[in-house]
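Batch job 17 of 40 flagged for manual review because the log was empty.
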Amino acid sequence: FRDQRFLAHKAKDAIVDQFREKFGVRPNVDTQKPDLRVLIRVVKSSVSVAIDTSGESLSHRGYRQKSVMAPLREHMAAGLLRMTGWKPEMPLVDPMCGSGTFLIEAALWATGRSPAAKRSDFGFMHLKGFQREVWDKVRQEGTRARSRPLALYGFDRSAEAIRAAKGNAERAGVLDLIRFRVGDIRDLKRPAGPKGILIVNPPYGERVGEKENLIGLYSEFATILKREFPDWNAWVLSGNEALSEALHLKAERRIRVYNGTLECRFLNYPIR
């Protein structure tokens, strides 16, 4: 198969022909938002057929309606957070929090909330055997939160980003658990605890001429880390090796990850 459209067309014909033979009616399909997606994967002579029970990507939690430029996907933020070894009893700081995804995912996880509880539509809801009353019960359990004190702090120099982060956190039901504040990274102070986790997804300098301007910022950031966060663990998602080198810090761990299609490194810097 040299064109996936041919495969899709043949599969569609096979499905609708079965409906016509059984019911005498050819089904109509919304090509933009179908009730169910049929997934076909061909590898050499092996073909697998499956029904997508998720629907829209599970990374779409439903709480993030306001975003900033180059936001981190929710499931990516949740996965990176777990890599850091952060525990709910530890302070967590994001000094360039953008739309607040790292901190919102941390609050959801720490309080036992289901990250997808705000979603209103899944693929499995369109299956013939779907039972609404069972789903409503599961959803209620997923929104029942444990009460616990958390030290979650988000800073961003953009007031618009902080407004977006607060709005997203409110929709996720965790605004009261996170302290958001407008602040430049150059003015960053340790907000809590002798030890904790700092996690950040800084700009990568993808635009022409931007990388040169960011080198100084990365260098200043490293100075602030050493001055304000001794004994903390810093984790930096880097999409630009030259900018990472500008930190002049030795990474204890370098984990290869992909932010969308961009190959990145998730770098761990124990601050001593």
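Reviewer: the log was empty due to a logging misconfiguration, but the result itself is present. The mean pLDDT is 88. Unflagging and moving on to job 18.
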